[in-house]
Amino acid sequence: MTNQTPHAAGRPERILAYMVAATVGLSILAFFAVIIGTWLGAGANNGFGQGVWPAILALPLVGLPIGFILIIVLLVTTTVRRAREARQNGK
């Protein structure tokens, strides 16, 4: 049994993690903006069809699936790195 510290995440893994956090975070903020905008009456008289609202409405529809795909890519990347490290430590 060895007392090795786990290898720190590399630059690609950190970038993927930040991309996941930013994409999902912005999508959730946009979702709450729509809820608050509806509560304040922005949706009346086609208010959501004007200004920046169409982009805010579309952000969760695009951002959440992209965030899910990025999570899967991050999981695969981490698994491959750990398997490679285990093979190298086993030699």
| Shape category | rod-shaped
Instruction: Note the main sheet.
Output: none
Order of helices and strands: HH
Number of strands: 0
Q: Strand fraction band?
A: under 5%
- Mean pLDDT across residues: 89
> Spans of 5+ residues with little confidence (pLDDT < 50)?
none
User: Count of DSSP helices?
Assistant: 2
- Counted up, domains total 1
Radius of gyration: 20 Å
**How far is it from the N-terminal to the C-terminal residue, by CA?**
14 Å
Global structural class: mainly alpha
Residues in helices, as a percent range: over 70%
Would you kindly provide a brief summary of this structure?
It comes from Cryobacterium zhongshanensis. The chain is mainly α and 91 residues long.
3D structure, described in words:
It comes from Cryobacterium zhongshanensis. The chain crosses the membrane at residues 15-40, 52-77. This is Multidrug ABC transporter ATPase. Keywords: Membrane, Transmembrane, Transmembrane helix. The mean pLDDT is 89. It contains two helices and no strands. 5% of the residues are buried. α1 packs antiparallel against α2. The chain has one domain. The longest helix is centred in the C-terminal third of the chain and has 38 residues, at 53-90. The chain is rod-shaped and about 70 Å long. It is mainly alpha-helical and 91 residues long.
